[in-house]
């Protein structure tokens, strides 16, 4: 992954910023917002919005106030206010569209507690920030070793340094509450920096790390998904999916977020469809629902005494039978309804390639065999006549065996004696 300003190196990372998909120009950044108001000028007397959106490592974004009226544009590296010291981030959005994003994320644009942008980052700030980013993998590996020695049931998934290198935030996942006080002391002694531990969920961990899903595309949480809604097993039941945890679970180990994408469509289609607990009373016996095709509106019923034999009914036919059952009337059988449902659908295949024959590239073998058979028949039907003078056979056409007609003039002439 790279953008126009970052060429790819040998290790697969961009050479320019080495952010592995989150480049400085924001061209291939995760969760990038397109500034469609950039080419529009402000009306007369209007001042530009004084807040900007700044992105830090991975997809963490925050809003800052530009009190110094700096001329900032997308891709500028700035020094921002932090709890202690300063942090280095990248501007991802400026102008009026920032106001829309703050309203969407429920951030008060008039709040006085909004952090500030100090200045544009100097080369020295960028060098310190880059050195800290290069140390993250080594420190993460060492922190995991310390956690294993202390027998802590936790997983350190990522490390994020502050821009000035004075503080590091460790993101971890754990099932239960973890007492990491001794861990913080050991890591502060080993690394010589201030430590902050922040617990995240398994979905947030997959969002930060990224990956490829079972569909073959990048994870939704690491590309465009911003909010994580709860996913229950009822979403799979409504869509008639098998409750197999290996197929329904994603990279995070939880149920896939995409189970909620089509759930509303299924719920809307199920409103006009009888439930799976529907029972039909017939004179032949009691019938239970075995299977439902939601979008086609077809239900399959079977008798209690014959569960292996299914009968296909439409939702209108089922409602008609239920209406008679409410009046305490029984239909004779399900077979009288299923007779009209069997309609053979002729499969129509479209000619995509332009030629229907699969053997169009094969050599025509039948034409040669026919010619050979004709030649054999001709040779068998020929009548061979033996000539006493030439000793060659003749067929019915008067040709000799060599295929030439005999010279009649020479053959009719009598041989003259030598004395003459």
Automatic annotation (TrEMBL):
<dbReference type="GO" id="GO:0005737">
    <property type="term" value="C:cytoplasm"/>
</dbReference>
<feature type="compositionally biased region" description="Basic residues">
    <location>
        <begin position="365"/>
        <end position="381"/>
    </location>
</feature>
<feature type="compositionally biased region" description="Basic residues">
    <location>
        <begin position="411"/>
        <end position="420"/>
    </location>
</feature>
<feature type="domain" description="PSP1 C-terminal">
    <location>
        <begin position="115"/>
        <end position="200"/>
    </location>
</feature>
<dbReference type="InterPro" id="IPR007557">
    <property type="entry name" value="PSP1_C"/>
</dbReference>
<dbReference type="InterPro" id="IPR047767">
    <property type="entry name" value="PSP1-like"/>
</dbReference>
<feature type="region of interest" description="Disordered">
    <location>
        <begin position="360"/>
        <end position="420"/>
    </location>
</feature>
<dbReference type="Pfam" id="PF04468">
    <property type="entry name" value="PSP1"/>
</dbReference>
<protein>
    <recommendedName>
        <fullName>PSP1 C-terminal domain-containing protein</fullName>
    </recommendedName>
</protein>
């Amino acid at each position: 992954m790279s953008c126009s300003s970052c060429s790819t190196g040998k290790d697969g990372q961009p050479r320019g910023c080495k952010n592995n998909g989150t480049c400085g120009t924001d061209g291939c950044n995760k969760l990038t917002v397109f500034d469609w108001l950039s080419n529009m000028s402000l009306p007369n007397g209007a001042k530009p919005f004084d807040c900007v959106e700044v992105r830090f490592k991975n997809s963490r974004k925050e809003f800052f106030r530009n009190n110094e009226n700096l001329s900032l544009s997308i891709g500028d590296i700035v020094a921002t206010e932090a709890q202690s010291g300063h942090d280095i981030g990248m501007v991802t959005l400026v102008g009026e569209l920032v106001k829309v994003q703050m309203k969407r994320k429920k951030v008060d644009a008039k709040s006085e507690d909004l952090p500030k942008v100090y200045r544009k980052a100097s080369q020295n700030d960028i060098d310190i920030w880059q050195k800290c980013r290069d140390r993250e993998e080594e420190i993460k590996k060492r922190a995991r070793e310390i956690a294993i020695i202390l027998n802590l049931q936790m997983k350190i998934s990522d490390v994020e340094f502050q821009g000035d290198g004075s503080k590091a935030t460790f993101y971890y996942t754990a099932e239960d509450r973890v007492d990491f006080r001794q861990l913080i002391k050991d890591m502060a002694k080993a690394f010589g920096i201030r430590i902050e531990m922040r617990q995240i969920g398994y979905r947030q961990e997959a969002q930060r790390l990224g990956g490829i899903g079972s569909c073959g595309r990048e994870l939704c949480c690491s590309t465009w998904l911003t909010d994580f809604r709860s996913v229950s097993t009822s979403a799979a039941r409504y869509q008639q999916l098998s409750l197999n945890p290996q197929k329904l679970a994603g990279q995070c180990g939880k149920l896939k977020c995409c189970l909620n994408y089509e759930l509303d469509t299924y719920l809307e289609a199920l409103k006009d469809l009888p439930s799976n607990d529907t029972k039909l009373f017939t004179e032949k016996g009691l019938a239970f629902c075995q299977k439902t095709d939601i979008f086609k509106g077809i239900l399959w019923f079977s008798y209690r005494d014959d569960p292996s034999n299914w009968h296909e009914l439409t939702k209108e036919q089922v409602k008609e039978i239920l209406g008679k059952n409410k009046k305490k009337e029984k239909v004779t059988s399900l077979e009288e309804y299923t007779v009209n449902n069997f309609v053979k659908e002729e499969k129509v295949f479209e000619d995509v390639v332009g030629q229907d024959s699969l053997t169009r590239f094969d050599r025509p073998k039948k034409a040669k065999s026919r010619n050979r058979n004709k030649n054999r028949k001709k040779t068998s039907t020929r009548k061979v006549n033996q000539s006493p003078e030439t000793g060659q056979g003749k067929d019915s056409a008067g040709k000799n065996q060599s295929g030439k007609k005999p010279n009649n003039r020479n053959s009719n002439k009598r041989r003259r004696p030598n004395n003459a």
